[in-house]
Amino acid sequence: MLMDRRKKPNVVPKVMSENEIISLLSDINPEEVNEARRASMVPLYDTIFFEGEPGGAIIRDVNGVEYLDCTSQAWTLNVGSSNPDVIYGAYVQASRLNHVRYGYPTIPRIKLLNKLAKIAPGDLKKVCLNTQGGSYAIEAAMKLAMINKPGSSLFVTFLRSYQGSTLATIGASAFIREGIRFPGFGLDHFMKAPYPYCYRCAYGEEGPDQCNNECLVTLEQLVDRGVNVPVTGMIVEPMQGPGGQVPAPKKFLEGLRRICDERKIVLIFDEAQTGFGRIGKWFAAEYYGVMPDVICFTKALGGGFPIGGILASKKLRQTFLTPGEEHSTFGSNPVSFAAACVTLELIERLNLMKNAEEQGKYFTKRIKEEFMPKYPIIGDIRGPGLFIGMEMVKDRKTKEPASAEANTIVGEATKRRVIFDLSMTDTTSKGELVRNVVKFKPPLVITREQVDHALDVLDESIKAVTKK
Length: 468
Ligand SMILES: Cc1ncc(COP(=O)(O)O)c(C=O)c1O
Fold this sequence. Notes:
Elements: H1 18-26, H2 30-39, E1 49-52, E2 58-61, E3 66-69, H3 72-75, H4 84-96, H5 107-119, E4 126-130, H6 134-148, E5 155-158, H7 167-172, E6 190-193, H8 214-226, E7 233-236, E8 239-240, E9 246-247, H9 250-263, E10 266-270, H10 284-288, E11 294-297, E12 308-312, H11 334-349, H12 352-374, E13 378-382, E14 388-392, H13 403-415, E15 418-419, E16 421-425, E17 434-440, H14 448-467
Parallel strand pairs: 3-15, 5-6, 5-7, 7-10, 10-11
Antiparallel strand pairs: 1-2, 2-3, 4-12, 8-9, 11-12, 13-14, 14-17, 16-17
Helix pairs in contact: 4-11, 5-11, 12-14, 13-14
Protein backbone atom coordinates (compact mmCIF):
# COMPACT_ATOMS: atom_id res chain seq x y z
CA MET A 1 0.00 0.00 0.00
CA LEU A 2 1.31 3.42 -0.96
CA MET A 3 1.50 5.90 1.85
CA ASP A 4 2.67 9.48 2.06
CA ARG A 5 4.99 9.44 5.03
CA ARG A 6 5.68 13.15 4.70
CA LYS A 7 2.09 14.24 5.06
CA LYS A 8 1.72 17.29 7.34
CA PRO A 9 -0.35 16.67 10.45
CA ASN A 10 -3.70 18.32 10.82
CA VAL A 11 -5.26 17.07 13.99
CA VAL A 12 -8.89 17.96 14.56
CA PRO A 13 -10.66 16.72 17.67
CA LYS A 14 -13.62 14.46 16.98
CA VAL A 15 -15.54 14.14 20.22
CA MET A 16 -14.79 17.36 22.01
CA SER A 17 -14.56 20.74 20.30
CA GLU A 18 -11.26 22.61 20.11
CA ASN A 19 -12.69 25.23 22.44
CA GLU A 20 -13.76 22.65 24.98
CA ILE A 21 -10.26 21.20 25.09
CA ILE A 22 -8.67 24.64 25.34
CA SER A 23 -11.04 25.60 28.11
CA LEU A 24 -10.37 22.32 29.98
CA LEU A 25 -6.67 23.09 29.97
CA SER A 26 -6.90 26.83 30.65
CA ASP A 27 -9.68 27.72 33.05
CA ILE A 28 -9.11 27.22 36.74
CA ASN A 29 -10.69 28.60 39.88
CA PRO A 30 -9.31 28.84 43.42
CA GLU A 31 -11.60 26.10 44.72
CA GLU A 32 -10.22 23.61 42.19
CA VAL A 33 -6.71 24.52 43.26
CA ASN A 34 -7.51 23.97 46.93
CA GLU A 35 -9.22 20.69 46.21
CA ALA A 36 -6.19 19.49 44.25
CA ARG A 37 -3.87 20.54 47.06
CA ARG A 38 -5.94 18.47 49.47
CA ALA A 39 -5.93 15.49 47.08
CA SER A 40 -2.26 15.58 46.17
CA MET A 41 -0.10 13.09 48.06
CA VAL A 42 3.02 15.14 47.37
CA PRO A 43 3.62 18.79 48.25
CA LEU A 44 2.82 21.32 45.52
CA TYR A 45 4.61 24.66 45.25
CA ASP A 46 2.55 27.87 45.40
CA THR A 47 3.20 29.16 41.87
CA ILE A 48 1.16 27.64 39.06
CA PHE A 49 3.14 28.02 35.85
CA PHE A 50 1.18 28.31 32.65
CA GLU A 51 3.36 29.05 29.65
CA GLY A 52 6.88 29.75 28.52
CA GLU A 53 8.35 32.06 25.93
CA PRO A 54 8.72 29.61 23.02
CA GLY A 55 12.35 28.53 22.92
CA GLY A 56 13.35 31.09 25.55
CA ALA A 57 14.21 31.44 29.23
CA ILE A 58 11.04 33.26 30.33
CA ILE A 59 8.12 31.50 31.98
CA ARG A 60 4.76 32.92 33.07
CA ASP A 61 2.36 31.86 35.78
CA VAL A 62 -1.42 31.57 35.45
CA ASN A 63 -1.80 35.26 36.28
CA GLY A 64 0.61 36.32 33.56
CA VAL A 65 3.46 37.16 35.95
CA GLU A 66 6.74 36.71 34.08
CA TYR A 67 9.90 35.14 35.49
CA LEU A 68 13.40 34.68 34.13
CA ASP A 69 14.01 31.01 34.78
CA CYS A 70 17.59 30.33 35.86
CA THR A 71 16.82 26.71 36.77
CA SER A 72 15.80 25.21 33.39
CA GLN A 73 13.11 23.37 35.37
CA ALA A 74 15.29 20.62 36.77
CA TRP A 75 17.90 20.97 34.01
CA THR A 76 15.53 19.89 31.25
CA LEU A 77 15.06 23.02 29.14
CA ASN A 78 18.47 23.55 27.52
CA VAL A 79 16.71 24.63 24.30
CA GLY A 80 14.23 26.84 26.20
CA SER A 81 10.68 26.05 27.20
CA SER A 82 8.14 24.86 24.63
CA ASN A 83 10.72 25.22 21.91
CA PRO A 84 8.68 25.54 18.70
CA ASP A 85 10.83 23.09 16.72
CA VAL A 86 10.70 20.52 19.51
CA ILE A 87 6.95 20.97 19.90
CA TYR A 88 6.42 20.63 16.17
CA GLY A 89 8.50 17.43 16.11
CA ALA A 90 6.48 16.04 19.00
CA TYR A 91 3.21 17.08 17.33
CA VAL A 92 4.13 15.43 14.04
CA GLN A 93 4.98 12.18 15.80
CA ALA A 94 2.04 12.30 18.25
CA SER A 95 -0.38 12.89 15.42
CA ARG A 96 0.88 9.75 13.66
CA LEU A 97 1.44 7.35 16.51
CA ASN A 98 1.77 8.40 20.11
CA HIS A 99 2.89 5.14 21.64
CA VAL A 100 4.25 1.68 20.90
CA ARG A 101 5.34 -1.10 23.21
CA TYR A 102 8.97 -1.30 24.19
CA GLY A 103 10.32 -3.72 21.60
CA TYR A 104 9.15 -1.85 18.51
CA PRO A 105 11.50 0.47 16.71
CA THR A 106 9.99 3.67 15.32
CA ILE A 107 11.61 6.20 12.99
CA PRO A 108 12.45 8.63 15.85
CA ARG A 109 13.90 5.81 17.96
CA ILE A 110 16.11 4.66 15.07
CA LYS A 111 17.30 8.19 14.33
CA LEU A 112 17.95 8.88 18.00
CA LEU A 113 19.93 5.66 18.53
CA ASN A 114 22.14 6.56 15.58
CA LYS A 115 22.59 10.20 16.58
CA LEU A 116 23.47 9.35 20.18
CA ALA A 117 25.99 6.74 19.02
CA LYS A 118 27.50 9.44 16.81
CA ILE A 119 27.89 12.12 19.48
CA ALA A 120 28.90 9.63 22.20
CA PRO A 121 32.46 10.18 23.40
CA GLY A 122 35.21 7.59 22.92
CA ASP A 123 33.94 4.11 22.22
CA LEU A 124 30.68 4.48 24.17
CA LYS A 125 28.74 3.64 21.05
CA LYS A 126 26.17 1.17 22.40
CA VAL A 127 22.89 2.84 23.37
CA CYS A 128 19.90 1.86 25.50
CA LEU A 129 16.94 4.26 25.64
CA ASN A 130 14.02 4.76 27.97
CA THR A 131 11.36 7.42 28.29
CA GLN A 132 11.11 7.43 32.07
CA GLY A 133 14.16 9.35 33.12
CA GLY A 134 17.33 9.33 35.13
CA SER A 135 16.62 6.86 37.94
CA TYR A 136 15.67 4.31 35.35
CA ALA A 137 18.88 5.02 33.43
CA ILE A 138 20.98 4.54 36.57
CA GLU A 139 19.31 1.20 37.18
CA ALA A 140 19.96 0.15 33.56
CA ALA A 141 23.64 0.93 34.10
CA MET A 142 23.63 -1.10 37.32
CA LYS A 143 22.04 -4.03 35.50
CA LEU A 144 24.67 -3.86 32.77
CA ALA A 145 27.46 -3.73 35.34
CA MET A 146 26.10 -6.81 37.14
CA ILE A 147 25.86 -8.67 33.83
CA ASN A 148 29.49 -7.83 33.18
CA LYS A 149 30.59 -8.91 36.63
CA PRO A 150 28.39 -11.93 37.23
CA GLY A 151 27.70 -12.88 40.82
CA SER A 152 28.47 -9.46 42.28
CA SER A 153 26.10 -6.65 43.14
CA LEU A 154 27.97 -4.06 45.18
CA PHE A 155 28.34 -0.49 43.97
CA VAL A 156 30.50 2.36 45.14
CA THR A 157 28.70 5.69 45.19
CA PHE A 158 29.84 8.95 46.72
CA LEU A 159 29.05 11.20 49.66
CA ARG A 160 26.67 14.01 48.63
CA SER A 161 25.67 12.05 45.51
CA TYR A 162 22.17 11.95 44.09
CA GLN A 163 21.07 9.19 41.75
CA GLY A 164 17.30 9.36 41.89
CA SER A 165 14.13 8.43 43.73
CA THR A 166 13.43 4.79 42.90
CA LEU A 167 14.20 2.43 45.75
CA ALA A 168 17.55 1.37 44.28
CA THR A 169 18.64 4.91 43.45
CA ILE A 170 17.61 6.22 46.87
CA GLY A 171 20.00 3.60 48.24
CA ALA A 172 22.68 4.77 45.83
CA SER A 173 22.25 8.41 46.83
CA ALA A 174 23.97 9.81 49.84
CA PHE A 175 22.73 13.29 50.22
CA ILE A 176 19.03 12.93 50.79
CA ARG A 177 18.44 11.17 54.05
CA GLU A 178 16.06 13.55 55.74
CA GLY A 179 12.42 12.86 55.14
CA ILE A 180 13.02 9.37 53.78
CA ARG A 181 11.31 6.53 55.58
CA PHE A 182 12.65 3.37 54.00
CA PRO A 183 15.29 2.52 56.56
CA GLY A 184 18.05 0.33 55.26
CA PHE A 185 16.33 -0.60 52.02
CA GLY A 186 18.92 -1.72 49.48
CA LEU A 187 21.80 -0.17 51.38
CA ASP A 188 23.68 -3.48 51.42
CA HIS A 189 24.33 -2.89 47.71
CA PHE A 190 26.02 0.48 48.11
CA MET A 191 29.23 1.59 49.75
CA LYS A 192 29.70 5.36 50.04
CA ALA A 193 33.10 6.90 49.49
CA PRO A 194 34.39 10.49 49.82
CA TYR A 195 34.02 12.84 46.86
CA PRO A 196 36.53 15.65 46.50
CA TYR A 197 35.11 18.95 47.68
CA CYS A 198 38.22 21.06 47.34
CA TYR A 199 36.72 24.25 48.77
CA ARG A 200 36.18 22.33 52.00
CA CYS A 201 38.69 19.53 51.77
CA ALA A 202 37.91 16.96 54.47
CA TYR A 203 41.63 16.17 54.63
CA GLY A 204 42.64 19.81 55.15
CA GLU A 205 44.39 20.15 51.79
CA GLU A 206 44.56 23.45 49.91
CA GLY A 207 43.21 22.31 46.54
CA PRO A 208 43.64 19.72 43.81
CA ASP A 209 47.05 20.99 42.69
CA GLN A 210 48.55 20.59 46.14
CA CYS A 211 46.86 17.47 47.47
CA ASN A 212 48.02 13.86 47.59
CA ASN A 213 44.76 12.38 46.36
CA GLU A 214 43.61 11.41 49.85
CA CYS A 215 40.06 10.81 48.51
CA LEU A 216 41.46 8.17 46.16
CA VAL A 217 43.61 6.59 48.86
CA THR A 218 40.53 6.17 51.07
CA LEU A 219 38.55 4.84 48.15
CA GLU A 220 41.16 2.21 47.35
CA GLN A 221 41.24 1.12 50.98
CA LEU A 222 37.44 0.85 51.04
CA VAL A 223 37.34 -1.18 47.84
CA ASP A 224 40.15 -3.53 48.85
CA ARG A 225 39.64 -3.84 52.60
CA GLY A 226 36.28 -2.27 53.47
CA VAL A 227 34.27 -5.14 51.97
CA ASN A 228 34.81 -8.85 51.45
CA VAL A 229 33.06 -9.13 48.09
CA PRO A 230 34.14 -7.80 44.70
CA VAL A 231 32.90 -4.34 43.74
CA THR A 232 30.68 -4.42 40.63
CA GLY A 233 30.55 -0.80 39.61
CA MET A 234 31.26 2.76 40.63
CA ILE A 235 28.59 5.38 39.99
CA VAL A 236 29.90 8.93 40.02
CA GLU A 237 28.63 12.33 38.97
CA PRO A 238 31.71 13.83 37.28
CA MET A 239 30.40 17.14 38.55
CA GLN A 240 28.19 16.75 41.60
CA GLY A 241 24.91 18.57 41.05
CA PRO A 242 22.35 18.32 43.85
CA GLY A 243 25.21 17.86 46.33
CA GLY A 244 26.63 21.37 45.98
CA GLN A 245 27.55 21.97 42.31
CA VAL A 246 31.01 20.55 42.82
CA PRO A 247 33.07 19.60 39.76
CA ALA A 248 35.57 16.81 40.44
CA PRO A 249 39.21 17.57 39.70
CA LYS A 250 40.38 15.76 36.58
CA LYS A 251 42.95 13.76 38.53
CA PHE A 252 40.21 12.30 40.74
CA LEU A 253 38.33 10.96 37.72
CA GLU A 254 41.60 9.67 36.22
CA GLY A 255 42.22 7.92 39.54
CA LEU A 256 38.77 6.31 39.43
CA ARG A 257 39.51 5.08 35.92
CA ARG A 258 42.77 3.49 37.11
CA ILE A 259 41.19 1.91 40.20
CA CYS A 260 38.36 0.47 38.10
CA ASP A 261 40.72 -0.80 35.39
CA GLU A 262 42.93 -2.55 37.92
CA ARG A 263 39.97 -4.34 39.52
CA LYS A 264 37.65 -4.77 36.52
CA ILE A 265 35.04 -2.52 38.12
CA VAL A 266 32.52 -0.93 35.73
CA LEU A 267 32.92 2.86 35.86
CA ILE A 268 29.59 4.66 35.43
CA PHE A 269 29.27 8.42 34.96
CA ASP A 270 25.93 9.88 36.02
CA GLU A 271 25.61 12.73 33.52
CA ALA A 272 21.97 13.54 34.29
CA GLN A 273 22.85 17.20 34.75
CA THR A 274 26.08 17.63 32.81
CA GLY A 275 24.94 16.09 29.51
CA PHE A 276 23.87 17.79 26.28
CA GLY A 277 25.76 21.04 26.17
CA ARG A 278 25.41 22.51 29.64
CA ILE A 279 29.13 22.50 30.34
CA GLY A 280 30.12 23.52 26.81
CA LYS A 281 30.51 19.93 25.58
CA TRP A 282 28.08 17.11 24.87
CA PHE A 283 29.28 15.23 27.96
CA ALA A 284 31.56 15.74 30.96
CA ALA A 285 33.54 12.64 29.87
CA GLU A 286 34.58 14.65 26.84
CA TYR A 287 35.24 17.78 28.92
CA TYR A 288 37.65 15.88 31.18
CA GLY A 289 39.00 13.50 28.55
CA VAL A 290 38.28 10.62 30.95
CA MET A 291 36.16 7.82 29.52
CA PRO A 292 33.89 5.77 31.77
CA ASP A 293 32.45 2.40 30.70
CA VAL A 294 28.89 3.72 30.89
CA ILE A 295 27.28 7.17 30.80
CA CYS A 296 23.76 7.66 32.18
CA PHE A 297 21.81 10.50 30.58
CA THR A 298 18.32 12.04 30.85
CA LYS A 299 16.87 15.55 31.45
CA ALA A 300 17.87 17.99 28.66
CA LEU A 301 17.84 15.40 25.88
CA GLY A 302 14.04 15.44 25.69
CA GLY A 303 13.70 19.22 25.33
CA GLY A 304 11.09 18.98 28.11
CA PHE A 305 9.74 15.51 27.27
CA PRO A 306 10.60 12.52 29.47
CA ILE A 307 13.62 10.51 28.41
CA GLY A 308 16.72 8.74 29.66
CA GLY A 309 19.20 6.05 28.82
CA ILE A 310 22.75 4.85 28.82
CA LEU A 311 25.74 4.82 26.52
CA ALA A 312 28.05 1.86 26.99
CA SER A 313 31.56 1.08 25.86
CA LYS A 314 31.97 -1.47 23.11
CA LYS A 315 34.84 -2.87 25.20
CA LEU A 316 32.48 -4.27 27.85
CA ARG A 317 32.20 -8.04 27.54
CA GLN A 318 28.40 -7.81 27.47
CA THR A 319 26.33 -4.97 26.08
CA PHE A 320 23.13 -6.88 25.45
CA LEU A 321 20.13 -6.62 27.77
CA THR A 322 17.38 -9.22 27.35
CA PRO A 323 13.71 -8.16 27.12
CA GLY A 324 13.26 -9.52 30.63
CA GLU A 325 16.07 -7.36 31.93
CA GLU A 326 15.15 -4.08 30.23
CA HIS A 327 11.68 -3.14 29.09
CA SER A 328 8.70 -1.22 30.40
CA THR A 329 5.30 -0.14 29.18
CA PHE A 330 6.24 3.48 28.72
CA GLY A 331 9.90 2.92 27.95
CA SER A 332 9.80 3.60 24.23
CA ASN A 333 7.53 6.56 23.70
CA PRO A 334 8.08 7.84 20.14
CA VAL A 335 6.88 11.37 20.98
CA SER A 336 9.73 11.77 23.46
CA PHE A 337 12.17 10.30 20.95
CA ALA A 338 10.96 12.72 18.27
CA ALA A 339 11.40 15.65 20.65
CA ALA A 340 14.91 14.41 21.48
CA CYS A 341 15.90 14.12 17.80
CA VAL A 342 14.94 17.76 17.27
CA THR A 343 16.59 18.88 20.53
CA LEU A 344 19.96 17.46 19.47
CA GLU A 345 19.70 19.23 16.09
CA LEU A 346 18.96 22.51 17.85
CA ILE A 347 21.85 22.23 20.29
CA GLU A 348 24.12 22.02 17.25
CA ARG A 349 22.41 24.52 14.94
CA LEU A 350 21.97 27.20 17.61
CA ASN A 351 25.55 26.70 18.78
CA LEU A 352 24.30 26.26 22.33
CA MET A 353 27.45 24.66 23.69
CA LYS A 354 29.41 27.76 22.76
CA ASN A 355 26.74 30.01 24.26
CA ALA A 356 26.80 27.97 27.49
CA GLU A 357 30.56 28.34 27.70
CA GLU A 358 30.56 32.08 26.93
CA GLN A 359 27.62 33.11 29.12
CA GLY A 360 28.92 30.91 31.92
CA LYS A 361 32.37 32.49 31.77
CA TYR A 362 30.83 35.95 31.76
CA PHE A 363 28.59 35.23 34.77
CA THR A 364 31.42 33.68 36.76
CA LYS A 365 33.84 36.49 35.91
CA ARG A 366 31.42 39.20 37.04
CA ILE A 367 30.75 37.36 40.29
CA LYS A 368 34.49 37.01 40.90
CA GLU A 369 35.52 40.52 39.89
CA GLU A 370 32.52 42.63 40.93
CA PHE A 371 30.53 40.71 43.52
CA MET A 372 33.16 38.93 45.59
CA PRO A 373 35.11 42.11 46.51
CA LYS A 374 31.95 43.76 47.86
CA TYR A 375 30.10 40.74 49.30
CA PRO A 376 32.16 38.66 51.75
CA ILE A 377 29.14 36.37 52.01
CA ILE A 378 30.19 34.79 48.70
CA GLY A 379 32.72 32.12 49.61
CA ASP A 380 33.23 30.37 46.28
CA ILE A 381 32.00 30.43 42.69
CA ARG A 382 32.26 27.32 40.54
CA GLY A 383 31.56 26.50 36.90
CA PRO A 384 32.00 25.40 34.18
CA GLY A 385 29.58 26.52 31.47
CA LEU A 386 26.08 27.13 32.76
CA PHE A 387 26.56 24.63 35.58
CA ILE A 388 27.27 27.27 38.20
CA GLY A 389 27.21 27.19 41.98
CA MET A 390 27.85 30.13 44.29
CA GLU A 391 28.59 29.04 47.83
CA MET A 392 27.44 31.42 50.57
CA VAL A 393 29.32 31.60 53.88
CA LYS A 394 29.00 33.65 57.06
CA ASP A 395 32.74 34.14 57.17
CA ARG A 396 35.34 33.45 54.47
CA LYS A 397 37.85 32.16 57.01
CA THR A 398 35.65 29.78 58.98
CA LYS A 399 33.51 29.00 55.91
CA GLU A 400 30.49 28.60 58.18
CA PRO A 401 27.62 27.98 55.76
CA ALA A 402 25.16 30.87 55.30
CA SER A 403 22.16 28.72 54.47
CA ALA A 404 19.44 30.99 55.89
CA GLU A 405 20.94 33.90 53.96
CA ALA A 406 21.21 31.84 50.75
CA ASN A 407 17.56 30.92 51.12
CA THR A 408 16.55 34.56 51.62
CA ILE A 409 18.63 35.64 48.61
CA VAL A 410 16.75 33.16 46.41
CA GLY A 411 13.47 34.42 47.92
CA GLU A 412 14.40 38.06 47.24
CA ALA A 413 15.29 37.20 43.64
CA THR A 414 11.98 35.39 43.17
CA LYS A 415 10.17 38.52 44.41
CA ARG A 416 12.06 40.33 41.62
CA ARG A 417 10.95 37.60 39.22
CA VAL A 418 14.18 35.79 38.63
CA ILE A 419 14.19 32.16 39.73
CA PHE A 420 17.34 30.60 41.17
CA ASP A 421 17.69 27.28 42.95
CA LEU A 422 19.61 26.05 45.97
CA SER A 423 21.92 23.06 46.20
CA MET A 424 22.41 20.95 49.28
CA THR A 425 25.78 20.24 50.75
CA ASP A 426 27.10 18.69 53.93
CA THR A 427 29.47 21.45 54.79
CA THR A 428 29.64 20.79 58.50
CA SER A 429 31.98 18.38 60.21
CA LYS A 430 28.94 16.42 61.39
CA GLY A 431 27.85 15.95 57.79
CA GLU A 432 24.66 17.92 58.39
CA LEU A 433 22.84 18.91 55.25
CA VAL A 434 22.65 22.61 54.52
CA ARG A 435 21.48 24.53 51.50
CA ASN A 436 23.98 27.29 51.00
CA VAL A 437 24.84 27.01 47.31
CA VAL A 438 22.87 29.27 44.95
CA LYS A 439 22.63 27.62 41.55
CA PHE A 440 22.64 29.38 38.19
CA LYS A 441 21.62 26.93 35.48
CA PRO A 442 19.42 28.71 32.96
CA PRO A 443 18.37 27.40 29.53
CA LEU A 444 21.39 27.45 27.22
CA VAL A 445 19.53 29.89 24.95
CA ILE A 446 19.89 32.63 27.56
CA THR A 447 21.06 35.96 26.11
CA ARG A 448 23.76 38.32 27.44
CA GLU A 449 21.04 40.85 28.38
CA GLN A 450 19.24 38.20 30.40
CA VAL A 451 22.47 37.16 32.14
CA ASP A 452 23.04 40.81 33.03
CA HIS A 453 19.49 41.07 34.32
CA ALA A 454 19.95 37.94 36.46
CA LEU A 455 23.17 39.46 37.85
CA ASP A 456 21.47 42.80 38.59
CA VAL A 457 18.71 41.03 40.48
CA LEU A 458 21.23 38.88 42.32
CA ASP A 459 23.10 42.05 43.25
CA GLU A 460 19.95 43.64 44.69
CA SER A 461 19.00 40.42 46.46
CA ILE A 462 22.38 39.96 48.12
CA LYS A 463 22.36 43.65 49.10
CA ALA A 464 18.90 43.29 50.61
CA VAL A 465 20.05 40.32 52.71
CA THR A 466 23.47 41.54 53.80
CA LYS A 467 22.18 45.01 54.72
CA LYS A 468 19.74 43.62 57.29
C1 LIG B 1 22.59 13.67 39.10
C2 LIG B 1 21.24 13.03 38.97
N1 LIG B 1 21.15 11.71 38.76
C3 LIG B 1 19.96 11.08 38.63
C4 LIG B 1 18.77 11.79 38.71
C5 LIG B 1 17.46 11.07 38.64
O1 LIG B 1 16.72 11.43 37.53
P1 LIG B 1 15.11 11.30 37.54
O2 LIG B 1 14.61 12.30 38.51
O3 LIG B 1 14.75 11.58 36.12
O4 LIG B 1 14.78 9.91 37.92
C6 LIG B 1 18.83 13.18 38.90
C7 LIG B 1 17.59 13.97 39.01
O5 LIG B 1 17.55 15.06 39.48
C8 LIG B 1 20.09 13.82 39.03
O6 LIG B 1 20.17 15.12 39.24
